[in-house]
């Protein structure tokens, strides 16, 4: 899992400089496919439940599962790029939201909030803690900024399969107050924060794209985590990526 996380993180390092105005999301997807194959690995999303591409690219009011297409990123957009690599059967899963040039204050703020929520949640984790520790850190932070936390899509256990138990909601619920994060477990934390209401709608035509119901923007960051006896270890973080405390 450490190796899968490291490979996935290196892929994000490879993509980061290219996520700029003028590139199409398909071109980003092509880079994901090429790089992953060149390294001898497999993009997990390609063919996953018939998903057609090697990554997800979710722009502005798209919360998650945006399908790369011929749309050209433009100044003012925010785009989440979510990549998952299978390395010798093990999965690494992470995403970042990118600001394209100068963006509105609201888009910058919701991006900052999603990033801060991820790190607040990670900071709160300790060996054997309840899964609800994550939601208890995230919800007050999002609400204090006037933002909301998506409920329909959650983090997940990670390993030889893409999506495993336990479910990792970014808000506390009954099951997350029972489930615990024991040393040896791998899972994702991937808060989706909406500038407006938390409510979502799924695209009827492509069956994948999830948007905010009110059309306001949404941002997300994701890392793959290993719980150790010493606390959480971030498997997908690299030196080149945004570090804890990063200001957008
Ligand atoms: N990478 C997403 C996650 O963090 C899942 C994408 S599944 C797909 O769990 F089929 F939409 F690609
Ligand atoms: Co992901
Ligand atoms: Co995930």
Q: What is the CATH T-level topology?
A: Creatine Amidinohydrolase
CATH architectural label:
Alpha-Beta Complex
Number of strands: 17
- Terminal residue distance: 29 Å
Please explain how this structure is put together.
The model has no long low-confidence stretch (mean pLDDT 99). Helix content is 25%, strand content 28%. With 248 residues, the chain is α+β, with helices and mostly antiparallel strands. The longest helix is centred in the middle third of the chain and has 20 residues, at 105-124. The protein has 4 helices and 17 strands. The two termini are 29 Å apart. It has one domain: Creatinase/methionine aminopeptidase superfamily (Creatine Amidinohydrolase). It has helices at residues 2-15, 25-38, 105-124, 132-144; strands at 42-43, 56-59, 62-64, 78-87, 90-99, 129-130, 148-149, 155-157, 164-168, 180-181, 186-189, 192-194, 200-202, 210-212, 218-220, 223-228, 231-234. It is globular and about 45 Å long. The site of one cobalt (II) ion (CO) has 5 residues, from strand 4 and strand 5.
Condensed summary:
The chain has 248 residues and is an alpha+beta fold. The protein has helices at residues 2-15, 25-38, 105-124, 132-144; strands at 42-43, 56-59, 62-64, 78-87, 90-99, 129-130, 148-149, 155-157, 164-168, 180-181, 186-189, 192-194, 200-202, 210-212, 218-220, 223-228, 231-234. The longest helix has 20 residues, at 105-124.
């Amino acid at each position: 899992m450490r190796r899968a996380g490291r490979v996935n993180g290196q892929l994000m390092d490879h993509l980061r400089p290219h996520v700029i105005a003028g590139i199409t999301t398909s071109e980003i997807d092509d880079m994901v496919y090429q790089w992953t194959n060149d390294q001898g690995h497999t993009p997990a999303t390609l063919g996953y439940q018939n998903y057609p591409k090697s990554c997800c690219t979710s722009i502005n009011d798209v919360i998650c599962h945006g399908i790369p297409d011929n749309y050209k990123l433009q100044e003012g957009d925010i785009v989440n790029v979510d990549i998952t690599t299978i390395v010798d059967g093990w999965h690494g899963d992470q995403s970042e939201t990118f600001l394209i040039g100068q963006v509105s204050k609201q888009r910058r703020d919701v991006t900052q909030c999603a990033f801060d929520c991820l790190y607040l949640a990670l900071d709160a984790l300790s060996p054997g803690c309840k899964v609800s520790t994550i939601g208890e850190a995230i919800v007050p932070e999002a609400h204090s900024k006037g933002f909301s936390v998506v409920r329909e899509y959650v983090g997940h256990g990670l390993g030889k399969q893409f999506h495993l138990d336990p479910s990792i909601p970014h808000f506390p619920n009954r099951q997350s107050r029972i489930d615990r994060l024991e040393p040896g477990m791998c899972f994702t934390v991937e808060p989706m924060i909406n500038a407006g209401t938390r409510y979502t709608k799924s695209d009827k035509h492509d069956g994948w794209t999830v948007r905010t119901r009110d059309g306001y923007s949404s941002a997300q960051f994701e890392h793959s985590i290993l719980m150790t006896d010493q606390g959480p270890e971030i498997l997908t973080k690299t030196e080149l990526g945004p570090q804890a405390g990063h200001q957008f």
